Amino acid sequence: MSKLLQKSIKCEMSNGVTVVQEVAKENSLLKFIEFKVVKLNPHSKFSELLNDTECCIIALTGKINVTVVGEESFLNLGTRKSVFEKIPTDSIYISNNKFFEVEGITEARVALCYSPSNKQLPTKLIKAEDVGVEHRGILNNKRMVHNILPDSDSTANSLLVVEVYTESGNWSSYPPHKHDQDNLPDESLLEESYYHEMNPPQGFVFQRVYTDDRSIDETMTVENGDVVLVPAGYHPVGVPDGYESYYLNVMAGPKRIWKFNNDPNHEWILKR
Prior knowledge:
Elements: E1 5-6, E2 11-12, E3 17-23, E4 34-40, E5 45-49, E6 53-61, E7 64-68, E8 73-77, E9 91-94, E10 99-104, E11 108-116, E12 124-126, E13 132-136, E14 143-149, E15 160-166, E16 171-172, E17 177-178, E18 180-183, E19 187-189, E20 191-199, E21 204-210, E22 217-223, E23 227-230, E24 237-238, E25 244-252, E26 261-262
């Protein structure tokens, strides 16, 4: 089994909460990113103390309430029944050393994105209508991006979070690019994780992760609910005909700047 591919799981907790994906320091090659997806039944609650960690909570599907203990509650968050409605959703940024609780109003799936943090910042509601939407690429390289936590704002210490939709028969994160060198202004060092979903759900995508020296070089068949880890290297995604791709990207590193370089062997594609 690949060390870069984490399959979906089903770990039932108490009170109607099920963990369906978990990337933790104990089971991952990543140092700056942890990630979790939980499924909530109506009225079920998931709670956590962050300690030296910041978190972005994303209402993937369904409706939720989020309470930051000692601060305030954010009610009726979430805009969609499926991520493939292709509309932005609501998110909450919570800084380190805070305790929060997420409650399902309806059946809901929630993504939790984590990174180390030692500077406390204000809690922030990221409303769906404030999420920037971009359309990138041409020909067979088309995708739509929801910028939840881009590097153009100062909401977080380290986390960068985006949602990406790739059309059937197209490529994404393409031409292959990387951001694994702490060499600003030319390139930033950012780890990355990809949480994948497909429409219809029995579909799959291919993702390759490789470095210039090929010390990492893996091509993976990725199914619905899987996570691909990118500790370094280029990381393109190919979507077969007949299926649509959704992925939730989390990036984090020593500096909160997204500066990448394309694989020079394939950069000619941009000049068509």
